[in-house]
Design brief:
Layout lengths: L3 E10 L3 H12 L4 E5 L6 H4 L10 H12 L2 E4 L2 E7 L2 E5 L4 E11 L3 E3 L12 E2 L1 H9 L9 E6 L2 H11 L7 E3 L3 H10 L4 H13 L5 E3 L2 E6 L6 E6 L2 E6 L2 E6 L1 E3 L2 H6 L3 E2 L2 E2 L12 E3 L8 H16 L7 H20 L15 E3 L4 E2 H4 L5 H8 L11 H9 L15 H6 L4 H9 L3
Parallel strand pairs: 1-2, 1-6, 2-3, 6-19, 8-15, 9-10, 9-15, 10-11
Antiparallel strand pairs: 4-5, 5-6, 7-16, 12-13, 13-14, 17-18, 20-21
Helix pairs in contact: 1-3, 1-9, 4-5, 6-10, 9-10
The structure holds flavin-adenine dinucleotide.
Length: 433
Amino acid sequence: MAATAQSFDILVIGGGPAGMAAAVCAAECGARVGIVDDNPKLGGQIWRGESDHQGKSEAAQWAARLHRSRATKLCGIRVFHQPQAGILLAEGNDDLIELRYEKLILATGARERFLPFPGWTLPNVMGAGGLQAMVKSGLPIRGKRVVIAGTGPLLLAVAAYLRKHGAQIPMICEQASWGSLTAFALSLAGQPRKVLQALRLKRDLAGIPFIPKSWPVAAHGQGTLDKVTIALPGRTETIPCDYLACGFHLVPNIELPMLLGCQIRNGLVMVDELQRTSLPDIFCAGEPTGIGGLELALVQGQIAGLAAANQTSIPQGLFRQQKKARRFARGLDRTFQLRPELRTLPQPETIVCRCEDVPFSRLRQHTSWRAAKLQSRCGMGPCQGRICGPATQFLLQWNPDSVRPPVFPARVESLAAITDHSELVGSVVTGGQ
Ligand SMILES: Cc1cc2nc3c(=O)[nH]c(=O)nc-3n(C[C@H](O)[C@H](O)[C@H](O)COP(=O)(O)OP(=O)(O)OC[C@H]3O[C@@H](n4cnc5c(N)ncnc54)[C@H](O)[C@@H]3O)c2cc1C
């Protein structure tokens, strides 16, 4: 069926910090380990491009350990289907790969959440993490005015990064209130590493207005963005800018765990203290189990790797760190919950599904995600609902009821090679869902 096939004792999907830590720990126990990521380099959202194993950074140290561990790295490969238990199918640049495993560790990370508002589809309105990634890949940002808006700690990390690279930041707009931000800051008191990070950010962002309880209501421009209107406490203000970097915290990538049948609750993959999912021999680590940042990803990855390799003596210190990191994740969740006012952002003509050009008014005619998909093609385009799905979940309280293969758009040849799997045939006809 597949052009090439590879077998592993333990297969890790996702090469961010969680996946790298899992692969290192499992391989150091002697297991035959494969680690797969759809990007050309490992490192995930935070370490991509700096996980070269030569330097002294934390990323470089994990990359060096991974290199020494002899785990097989499979980069530029995207897993899109599980035709039967123990076998995954993935696509490379121009081949189809069959990946066989005894045990599986899912470390598929998270993505930014976008909310639609008038003008959000204009060129130069971008995800905050997306703009950062483009600057890392060479987009010139020196001297550009970048308004940063939305919610979550990523906004601050991106603002600091862009400023360091010469951008002017007229304002950082955070929809959470001072009250909840203060409570969150106080809860960090027992975590010196986080306090240090916060102090560093405060220093790096000195002089930039940071406005809680504010959010973007419209982006304006003829052909490209030239200003953005922000709702501030009691008034609105329109600010000229070259870019709007905008994201509303993160959404866990749970499509693959859902396809496999892992138990999901409140949008998160359920795991026990050994990172075992509800399915035998399938583990999950990092952001799909809760948005918790780098430390949570690393500690969960280590535990998952050791547990999958049947290590009975996992250091107790890891479990203590895991508990602490989970507490931090719950705090993030509480603090950066979206305020109900944001549900009023889209106007009837505002595009919600940008792949299929579906405006808000068309979606409001339906009562569920499934009905809207069938009648309007919302969520049926190339992103497969990864952008409009979380938006409609918040705006209209719709829940995607199931995930069907392929979890990512796949080439026709790949689909044709597996047409003996009837569910896949169905999804080809219906556009992938
Ligand atoms: C856009 C963005 C930017 C971020 N920037 C920062 C930052 O600057 N600073 C900061 O502190 N935190 C940042 N974060 C948060 C950071 O990603 C997390 O704190 C942490 O790194 C999560 O690690 P992880 O291993 O769980 O996931 P990730 O780092 O997201 O790694 C998951 C990897 O799995 C891959 N993957 C997913 N599905 C498949 C599949 N089916 N097949 C193959 N590969 C797959 C993904 O492409 C990704 O490379 C960012 C998050 C996002 C979404």
